[in-house]
């Protein structure tokens, strides 16, 4: 089935196939929504995108766009966000926040010590197996991954409520200084939350992507440089990026590219440190007042109240020069009130403000750019709103700061754009992101020298600010037995400047290779030479390092005779076809040795490849490789036979001598052996040297604990829903029975029974039933409904019956009008339009008459009954009757739609006779007889019948026109 459209030009018909459209919409409907999560230290933002809906921020249950990243436990209950913060004021040790910087760290990490100092009321212990952070609250213990996973579950629920779809994929935003341990720990937490991580994206990269998306038209082939400065709750960072249009070498398409060029950060400078200092200041001032002998710093609840008030005061002082801090019942029922001026607050944070510009200067230094080439310094992050911070930055850079970015949501919106790009079911405009390595990664191994002494060798794999994702290859060409090597961070002192302990273990992994001697012995022969062992490494788009594979590379020398013997008939045919298309000649020299993998790989041992294998490679390495390739190609061009320049003899040299030399070279070239590269996998075992990832039995145990918590929450939610439903029904029933509208629909016995049951349930709810389970509440609700539903049903019938009767009246009136028109479309009244038979008209007339009689009778009988009597005329009876009448009318309506007038047969046209004696172009109505032109055959012309579907000038066909109308009034003759 389809829809026909007539084209005025040539009358062709287009057929739009509806199933194709249906399939398209089905594909869109099956596409799943995805989300991004900006899991900050203090706030959490969730971005979502679903088919047909633009990118947006998901609202939480309070209809707010951001949620505190706080989780609290109390008496078996679990709450999140603002509820957890409220509970945390009363029970500080049960409410956990500012968790993201504890991921992937052991308990002896300096960042964990700083956390303990800031929040002394938490009981932090070490995981017995992994030595990671575990929060202990009474008898319960929660690992850091479990707490983060629960926050991600909440984010997932907000996203699903916003889109109305199940969400299983996400992009998570992380600080750029996250190392391997933090990144793998966050991925494990997402797995606990049943989420697939499409990518971990650095916060400044997500913001830069968001900034570039809405300024795509301003990006051109000339690089533009921007700096993004962020001061959040926990840390401060700055990143220099470039925007530029770049043509892809493979697809020849031009796309905008944002590339990170330099990064600087301070992982302890942020709003949290300012808030903690203000909290401690308020505590000291309260102690000075001497309202109580108890030290406020020894009371966790008082400290939690001070911390909350310090956060409020910090935000108010950003817009006001002074404000009062006031807390009711801070300690020993003593109130606290103190005027704090902005100058006092800034004096508390004086040393912090001195560190504000350091990340900016570091980012510029790493990028190698001067400040005057930076187009704008763009601010994001909540604490960049502090006036003092803005004044310092403005003075330092000597220009106005760009504030045209949503400081809270920019990263989340950039990440959700990336999520839509990575997920299936979405098509977005390509915007390429190239992030940069902050902590270089190197390979360390032992090598035996010529003197027999062993020395340690270090080779950098991913240098500082190398772009990623990227692959690298390193070759070990002197190891003939099993060996091992270590992957570790490099140059940390230069990057972290003494804070190397915050990153944890400098070692990342220890790789042990086995069966090296065995594979070499089995593979190396007279014509097979070992070219070393290649280890392939990957730094994916999440910044997570891994060993892809290890293989033994061999080169086999194959002579022409051996090649001919080994080559099958099909191979020969394939090679011949390949040479035809590639332009190779049979007289060309044998295939040269293929280039080594990874580009300019070193002849020396262990030098890494230039990264040519990888998705992205460093710019310097690419240029170097291009230069080397150019030199090699130039050398080949000089030596190659058949070249345009070489074909000409040099000055003073006989042409026949030149030709003879060429023939000799060609003859010698044909006997050169062919080199074939072979690869043999080498077994490898990787042992991670940093924090043990949450995996295996440990992961299953954590997943089991989270499942138990989810089950408790579901049971609690079900109980609360059942209790609310029962209470609401009891109150509603009591109120309705006091209204005459409902009371008139019930008998005295029913009213008494309902009131009695409501009273009993109310009394039970406030005494023994307060602790009942969900099943008990649901059972009592069903019992009460069984008593009251009969009364409610009668009231509904009396209320809806007039509406249904009015609809029936409208249908009867419409049917009668149709009947009057249908009587004029019978054979007796209109022979040319005999649509309906007399039986069909009579059947419809009877249906209308019986419906009217039924309605009048039933309405009269129903009006005799009281409102509390059983209902005689129900709404269902009326709708059923309407259905019967509607069926009769629809039958006749469909028949009228399908009816077409009968077409009278048209007799074939009579043959025409023409004569050659007439002038050219003239025709006669009657042809002369054959006797008038002896010796000539009569010429007959017959006008063919027009196809019923043809039209002149593309005019639309009138489906009711007869054949006589289309042929015209000229009878059997039609002019040609």
UniProtKB/TrEMBL annotation:
<dbReference type="InterPro" id="IPR029048">
    <property type="entry name" value="HSP70_C_sf"/>
</dbReference>
<keyword id="KW-0067">ATP-binding</keyword>
<feature type="region of interest" description="Disordered">
    <location>
        <begin position="559"/>
        <end position="666"/>
    </location>
</feature>
<feature type="compositionally biased region" description="Polar residues">
    <location>
        <begin position="570"/>
        <end position="579"/>
    </location>
</feature>
<keyword id="KW-0256">Endoplasmic reticulum</keyword>
<dbReference type="GO" id="GO:0005524">
    <property type="term" value="F:ATP binding"/>
</dbReference>
<dbReference type="InterPro" id="IPR013126">
    <property type="entry name" value="Hsp_70_fam"/>
</dbReference>
<dbReference type="InterPro" id="IPR029047">
    <property type="entry name" value="HSP70_peptide-bd_sf"/>
</dbReference>
<dbReference type="GO" id="GO:0005788">
    <property type="term" value="C:endoplasmic reticulum lumen"/>
</dbReference>
<keyword id="KW-0143">Chaperone</keyword>
<keyword id="KW-0547">Nucleotide-binding</keyword>
<dbReference type="GO" id="GO:0030968">
    <property type="term" value="P:endoplasmic reticulum unfolded protein response"/>
</dbReference>
<dbReference type="InterPro" id="IPR018181">
    <property type="entry name" value="Heat_shock_70_CS"/>
</dbReference>
<dbReference type="Pfam" id="PF00012">
    <property type="entry name" value="HSP70"/>
</dbReference>
<dbReference type="GO" id="GO:0140662">
    <property type="term" value="F:ATP-dependent protein folding chaperone"/>
</dbReference>
<feature type="compositionally biased region" description="Basic and acidic residues">
    <location>
        <begin position="628"/>
        <end position="665"/>
    </location>
</feature>
<feature type="compositionally biased region" description="Basic and acidic residues">
    <location>
        <begin position="910"/>
        <end position="927"/>
    </location>
</feature>
<comment type="similarity">
    <text>Belongs to the heat shock protein 70 family.</text>
</comment>
<feature type="region of interest" description="Disordered">
    <location>
        <begin position="901"/>
        <end position="976"/>
    </location>
</feature>
<protein>
    <recommendedName>
        <fullName>Hypoxia up-regulated protein 1</fullName>
    </recommendedName>
</protein>
<keyword id="KW-0732">Signal</keyword>
<dbReference type="InterPro" id="IPR043129">
    <property type="entry name" value="ATPase_NBD"/>
</dbReference>
<dbReference type="GO" id="GO:0034663">
    <property type="term" value="C:endoplasmic reticulum chaperone complex"/>
</dbReference>
<feature type="compositionally biased region" description="Basic and acidic residues">
    <location>
        <begin position="585"/>
        <end position="595"/>
    </location>
</feature>
């Amino acid at each position: 089935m389809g829809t026909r459209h007539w084209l005025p030009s040539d009358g062709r018909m287009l057929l739009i196939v509806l199933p194709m459209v249906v399939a398209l919409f089905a594909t869109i409907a099956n596409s799943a929504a995805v989300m991004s999560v900006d899991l900050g230290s203090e706030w959490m933002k969730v971005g979502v995108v679903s088919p047909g809906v633009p990118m947006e921020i998901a609202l939480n249950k309070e209809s707010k766009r951001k949620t505190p990243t706080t989780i609290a436990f109390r008496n078996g209950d679990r709450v999140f966000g603002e509820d957890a913060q409220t509970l945390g004021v009363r029970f500080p040790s049960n409410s956990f926040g500012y968790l993201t910087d504890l991921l992937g760290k052991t308990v002896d990490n300096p960042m964990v010590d700083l956390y303990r100092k800031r929040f002394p009321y938490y009981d932090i212990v070490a995981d017995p197996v992994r030595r990671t952070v575990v929060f202990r609250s009474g008898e319960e213990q929660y690992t850091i991954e479990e707490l983060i996973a629960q926050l991600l579950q909440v984010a997932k629920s907000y996203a699903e409520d916003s889109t109305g779809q199940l969400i299983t994929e996400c992009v998570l935003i992380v600080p750029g200084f996250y190392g391997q341990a933090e990144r793998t720990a966050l991925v494990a937490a997402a797995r606990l939350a049943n989420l697939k991580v499409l990518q971990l994206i650095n916060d400044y990269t997500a913001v830069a992507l968001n900034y570039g998306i809405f300024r795509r038209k301003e990006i051109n082939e000339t690089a533009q440089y921007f700096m993004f400065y962020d001061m959040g709750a926990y840390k401060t960072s700055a990143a220099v990026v470039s925007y530029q249009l770049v043509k892809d070498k493979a697809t020849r398409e031009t796309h905008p590219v944002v590339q990170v060029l330099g990064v600087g950060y301070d992982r302890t400078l942020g709003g949290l440190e300012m808030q903690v200092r203000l909290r401690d200041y308020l505590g000291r001032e309260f102690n000075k007042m001497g309202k109580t002998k108890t030290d406020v710093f020894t009371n966790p609840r008082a400290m939690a109240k001070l911390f909350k008030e310090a956060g409020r005061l910090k935000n108010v002082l950003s817009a006001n020069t002074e404000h009062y801090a006031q807390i009711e019942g801070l300690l020993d029922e003593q109130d606290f009130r103190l005027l704090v001026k902005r100058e006092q607050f800034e004096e508390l944070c004086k040393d912090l403000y001195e560190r504000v510009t350091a990340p900016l200067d570091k980012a510029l230094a790493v990028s190698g750019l001067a400040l005057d080439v930076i187009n704008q310094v763009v601010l994001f992050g909540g604490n960049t709103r502090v006036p003092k911070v803005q004044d310092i930055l403005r003075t330092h850079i000597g220009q106005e700061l760009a504030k045209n970015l949503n400081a809270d949501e920019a990263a989340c919106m950039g990440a959700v754009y990336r999520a839509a790009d990575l997920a299936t079911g979405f098509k977005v405009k390509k915007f390429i992101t190239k992030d940069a390595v902050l902590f270089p990664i190197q390979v360390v191994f032992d090598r035996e020298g010529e003197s027999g002494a062993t020395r340690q060798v270090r080779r950098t794999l991913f240098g500082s600010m190398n772009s990623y994702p990227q692959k690298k290859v390193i070759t070990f060409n002197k190891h003939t037995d099993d060996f091992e090597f270590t992957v570790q961070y490099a140059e940390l002192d230069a990057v972290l400047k003494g804070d190397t302990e915050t990153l944890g273990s400098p070692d990342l992994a220890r790789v042990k290779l086995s069966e090296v001697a065995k594979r070499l012995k089995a593979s190396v022969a007279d014509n097979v030479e070992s070219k070393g062992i290649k280890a392939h490494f990957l730094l994916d788009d999440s910044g997570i390092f891994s060993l892809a594979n290890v293989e033994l590379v061999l080169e086999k020398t194959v002579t022409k005779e051996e090649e001919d013997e080994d080559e099958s008939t099909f191979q020969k045919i394939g090679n011949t076809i390949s040479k035809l298309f590639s332009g190779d000649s049979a007289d060309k020299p044998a295939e040269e040795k293929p280039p080594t993998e990874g580009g300019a790989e070193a002849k020396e041992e262990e030098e890494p490849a230039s990264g040519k294998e990888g998705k992205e490679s460093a710019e310097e390495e690419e240029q170097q490789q291009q230069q080397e390739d150019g030199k090699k190609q130039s050398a080949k061009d000089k030596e190659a036979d058949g070249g345009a320049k070489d074909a000409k003899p040099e000055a003073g040299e006989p042409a026949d001598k030149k030709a003879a030399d060429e023939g000799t070279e060609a003859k010698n070239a044909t006997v050169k052996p062919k080199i074939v590269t072979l690869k043999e996998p080498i077994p490898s075992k990787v042992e991670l040297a940093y924090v043990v990832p949450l995996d295996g039995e440990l992961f299953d145990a954590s997943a089991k604990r989270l499942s138990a918590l989810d089950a408790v929450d579901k049971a609690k939610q079900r109980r609360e829903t059942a209790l609310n439903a029962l209470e609401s029904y009891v109150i509603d029933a009591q109120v309705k029975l006091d209204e005459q509208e409902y009371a008139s629909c019930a008998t005295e016995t029913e009213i008494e029974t309902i009131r009695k049951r409501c009273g009993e349930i109310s009394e039970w709810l406030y005494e023994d039933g307060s602790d009942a389970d969900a099943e008990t509440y649901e059972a009592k609700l069903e019992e009460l409904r069984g008593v009251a539903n009969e009364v409610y049903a009668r009231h509904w019938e009396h209320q809806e019956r007039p509406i249904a009767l009015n609809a029936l009246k409208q249908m009867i009136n419409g049917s009668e009008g149709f009947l009057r028109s249908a009587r004029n479309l019978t054979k007796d009244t209109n022979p040319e339009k005999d649509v309906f038979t007399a039986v069909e008209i009579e059947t419809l007339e009877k249906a209308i008459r019986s419906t009217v009689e039924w309605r009048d009778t039933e309405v009269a009988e129903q009006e005799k009954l009281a409102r509390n009597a059983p209902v005689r005329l129900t709404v269902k009876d009326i709708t059923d009757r309407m259905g019967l009448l509607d069926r009769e009318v629809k039958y006749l309506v469909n028949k009228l739609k399908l009816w077409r007038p009968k077409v009278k047969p048209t007799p074939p046209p009579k043959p025409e006779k023409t004569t050659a004696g007439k002038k050219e172009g003239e025709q006669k109505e009657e042809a002369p007889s054959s006797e008038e032109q002896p010796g000539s055959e009569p010429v007959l012309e017959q006008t063919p019948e027009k196809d019923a579907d043809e039209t002149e000038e593309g005019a639309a066909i009138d489906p009711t026109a007869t054949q006589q109308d289309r042929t015209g009034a000229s009878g059997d003759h039609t002019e040609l």
